[in-house]
Amino acid sequence: MSRRDRYDIVVVGAGVVGAAAALACARDGLRVALVEARAPAQWRADAPDLRVYAFAPDNAALLEDLGVWAAVASARLQPYRAMRVWDAGGGDPIVFEADAFARTELGWIVEHGLLVDRLWSALPAAGVELHCPDRVSGLEQDEDSATVLLESGLRLRARLVLAADGGDSQLRAMAGIDTVTRDRGQSGLVAFIDHANPHQATCWQRFLPTGPLAFLPFAGSDGGEGRRSSIVWTLPEAEALRLRDCDEASFLVELDRAFDGPLGPMRAVSKRVAFPLKRQLAESVVAGRVALIGDAAHVVHPLAGQGVNLGLRDVAALRATLREAAAGGGDIAAPSRLTRWARTRRSENTVAAHAFDGLNRLFSNDALVPTLLRGPLMGLVGKMPPLTHAFWRRAAGL
Q1: Hey, where are the domains in the chain?
Q2: Model-level pTM?
Q3: d(CA 117, CA 242)
Q4: Which of 20, 90, 101, 357 has a CA positioned 20 to 30 A from the CA of residue 328?
Q5: Ranges of the chain with pLDDT below 70
Q6: Which one, of 21, 50, 51, lies nearest residue 33 by Cα?
Q7: Top-tier CATH class for 79-109+185-277+366-396
Q8: 295-332 tens-digit pLDDT
Q9: Where, by residue number, does the polypeptide cross the bilayer (predicted)?
Q10: Distance CA 181, CA 366 (A)
């Protein structure tokens, strides 16, 4: 089989970032094909997805513009109005509160599966041509186009191909782009926890010598009383596996000791899952007419919940570049345009990745000097409103 007529955009990978990119391009009148190896499971309210994001306001605005945010909000969405961050070694916490920023919320906690489900639901009406299940088996490029070869035998030729196929991106490898990876031997342990006291629409994060422990408020099946949270606990790999596999009573004892927070007695209401953590940056985010977005370009520590936010900012910035090109009647994937977009995005994502990794290194150790300094330094930052405002505005994309 052959498909020789040219698309404007071919997107490979239909997770949150890839589906959003395809939908954004189609909404802007471009001819788009989307390739995905497997269709996602349908989201169910009674089966919460353990993968949750602290969703930023700029990306909520992007999804609202794409016509899907209302569908997400009507299903399940937990606003958070405050963040409290403190160190186990002592010192005052850093506190971020919505009122201080003249907002009703700082952001929202939302499930990965729900975002994907609502984005996929919007694809057909937008005119996105979906190839699923199918996989990329090859890549060809010439001066004015790139062609992806699919296992089904189809050849999809486009002015621009977007690799959104994750941290282990096959398309990135086919484009000849290498990565720089740092593996710190840590894993993230995730689960849903019910607790006796309300979460107060607050994200709680305590830094421990083994890594940060976060409690993210979740709109679960607790009668609307706000007594359920999603935990993300960074631990050495062996310790994460031990706590994943130990009995529930032992796990809760260690969780309570590690958190030492105000949420009261706890009860586990889901399985526990551990996943490896690493920092990975592509050495380039453009090769000819292939551009990398999302985890294909950058994998960061989940310290501030910024992974999906950075990926969607790739999409928003690329959308602005493509709109500018279309308005001027130029080639949407002209090397000069892609180079400018790539320079800006790679710079921002590199700074973010190294900043998150640096914070994790600073707090995830029990060396004497960092332990003595970090608590007081955190307390000092918390007493400087302009600095806390700057931190939050950067995280919020504002």
Answers
A1: 6-70+112-181+278-361, 79-109+185-277+366-396
A2: 0.88
A3: 33
A4: 20
A5: 1-5, 221-224, 303-305, 347, 349-398
A6: 21
A7: alpha beta
A8: 999 998 776 567 799 999 999 999 999 999 888 887 88
A9: none
A10: 24
